[in-house]
Amino acid sequence: MTEKLRTDAGTSARVPCAFTVDVEDYYMVTAFERTVPFETWGAYESRVARNTQRVMDLLEEAAVKATFFVLGWVAEREPALVRAIAASGHEVACHGYRHRMIGAMNPGTFRDDLRRAKSVLEDLGGAAVKGFRAPSWSITAETMWALDVLIEEGFTYDSSIFPIHHDRYGVPGAERFPHTLQRPGGSILEIPPSTIRFAGLNFPVAGGGYLRLLPLWLTRRALRSINLRERRPCIIYVHPWEIDPDQPRMPCALPTRFRHYTGLAGTSAKLRTLLSEFAFARLCDSRFQ
Ligand SMILES: [Zn+2]
Predict the structure, then answer these.
(1) pLDDT in tens, 105-127
(2) How many A from CA of 22 to the centre of ligand 1?
């Protein structure tokens, strides 16, 4: 796969990027897991279907097909949403069942969580689910065993290893671009979210809070550097709640409030610009696989 992308460097063809969406609601994020335990999720106002539809509208405007990593719990409660994602030509991939960090599970409980999510997503989407993204990028040096479970459960790619330093996740020395990981039971394609290299370190640029907090000119410059200068794919990610400035505010400490709620009002416009500037393919498409 790496070879295939490198071959493009010698031609005028544009290297496709990927636009990815982690389909979860505003109260499900890891930062709120203590104040909003899984057992209470059903009590909160659901905004995920409407917000995901708004992301799909942005994609349709730009004629872009994307990859949606859907939480199994959301899929069970919003079956029409998963069917709509698939019917629009987007890829349905897996974000686990109940948004548990991999480090909070063992191979057995992870397998159960994964199977439950994959089964409902395949039933609703009508196609095999090939890709996985761990909640909060939680495949780290300590939880690489999760890749073995993914291979055993039939996944062909993973997009969970963030090659950065971070207080909760990340594998700082990991490769920045799609690459094959060899494991005892087989191999799996790893597709990391985009980073730029500066002063010997990798910095995240292409999604989530980084996309909301950085000015658009800086994000564009970084993505153009990756895609046009390095001639590699940018992997952009967003959550449906990130384009919803009116979402209910959860009680939380100041740093979390800053990370979660800054820049919500400007995200749609930023995404519209990025979607118009780059070429995109789904992660399940042959350009990535
Ligand atoms: Zn998530």
Answers:
(1) 999 999 999 999 999 999 999 99
(2) 6
